[in-house]
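#structure-requests
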Amino acid sequence: MLRRREGQILGGGEHRGALIARLGAGVLGFAALLAVFSAPAPALDSAEPLAKVSSAADSAKSQRDARAATREVSESSRDANVSIESLRHAADGGEPLAAWRLARMYADGDGVARDDRKAFDYFSKIVDRFANDDPSPGERFMVSNAFIALGAYLRDGAPDAGIGADPERAIDLFRYAATFFRSADAQYSLGRMYLDGVGVKKDARQAMSWLGLAARKGHTGAQALMGQVMFEGSAERPRGLMYLSLARAAAGDHPADKWIVEMHQKALASASEADRKAADGMVESYLKRRD
């Protein structure tokens, strides 16, 4: 299991904790790892004791209750306090969907005052809950998102909320979500940390491997960052400009995307006419393949 110490979530030595440790080598052997992770979960044996079937029914009811509580929060502002209390009750009872909904609400300031400490604690509940258990297909996004959100808190820290930075632990969480859930967001975060040497020794090869996985899934940030590395490396300037152009086309006018716009403008200004023409051709071919 993942253990809690001094308000942080730390790796343990049991099944998933050991698995995370074994993933320390990064993307080497990645295909073999994916083969393991893509294996279907074992089907429920009809001969299992009645107690297990009853437990599954109780779990299903708990999930239905949590979904109902979530709808209350989304659909009714008049009874917001009652709805949030319903979610808290379900989360305290071990319902991960309720814990995730509360975590996202507190992290985003959605219907409640933003509270990073509460968001961190609820995301931690989910990570603890699924440290050794496989989520159901319907829970995979929620659990993956919790691992990534907790990783972001530990990567950056939130001193005002009493959350200290622990980039090494963030690496573990991102690597787990990047590998087990194949999350493009986690792959991008992991690649960026390898590229910057945050929580891990700088490793451009590892960085580009993780960024490449995310970029091929259409992750805008990964495309931009990988494009910049390729373009500045000079050997693959046209391909780098291609990725930067794809990222720029996908980026909006939101302030969060400003760095992508500026990165593309800088590369375009320094690119030769030959680089720009080659990149245009690559973009066209890429889009045709996507279609």
